[in-house]
What does this fold into?
Amino acid sequence: MTAAPRPALTERDYRGAATPTNRKASAVAATNTVVRPGSTKRSTSRWAPTARKLTPYAFLSPTVIVMLVLMLIPVIMVIGYSFMDNVITNKNPVFVGIDNYVEVLNDPVFRTATGNTLFFTLVSVAAHLLLGLGFAMLLNSPLVGNVTKALFRVVYILPWLFTVAIIAVLWRLMLNPNGVINYILISLGLTDKGIEWLSSPETALLAVTFINIWAGYSFYMVTLLAGLQGVPADLYEAARVDGASAFQRFWNVTLPQLKPIIISMSVLDIIWTSQQFALIWMTTGGGPVNVTEMLSTYTYKLAFSRYEFSVASASAVLILLLTMVLAFFYVRHQKARD
It folds into this structure.
């Protein structure tokens, strides 16, 4: 069997063939191709690394500008006002040094507000943690059905969904002398008449603290529930095999796994609760007789009730310093955790 004859090469095939001479000519032509100094290609390659480095800063610049205008500049202005006499009502304010800080620290109302803020903050944070952890463990328990868990999640998360204004109005109506709370207490025979929960010096601070606890435990519950669902089941199995009781499994397995989350949330909650203003202002306004006066309401009254803006600025700077201390510990903990 003979092979098929090969087709004859034409003159065009000879011209396009990759002969050594053609390859050499192509290489020389590529080598002799020189980019002009003013060309776009050379300019683009020169500035490309710099453009890549500046691109992230270009995306961040709007946020940085907003933060400078709305946060950094006002803070600097308030710090400057705290060293002057009344800067708003006085056309020519003068430098008075630390006189405003001395006045604030010697004010008995400021000391009362500091004590109220400490009580309000510490009790609220502790109750948030205990209630949030308890409800989170309940919702994570295998003894509760899925339908029941879904129902409880909706009920428990409701306080976190309400705005501060709604919470304040709701509890003012419920704690009214003719409200639902007093009606239930009178029906059960626990009291003979309606109690002025938000107007009595004996109960006002406890009442606003209770309202804040009710409004804030859901944040802990949701976060701790996510943490509980992330704990490996193998740890509980190993502890159960070793004969650990339910309390020992909770103390030696659950709490160590949730410790980073608990510390982070507690520090954040201390910062948020110590600066609580809207709830106090819309329920008691700091009264009666400064019983519920907080650092936030005290500073607000200095500025917009007594029009002592420089003294209010000094009080605000003191609150800022306290908050910065808490923020320092929070950032330090986060770095150690990472």
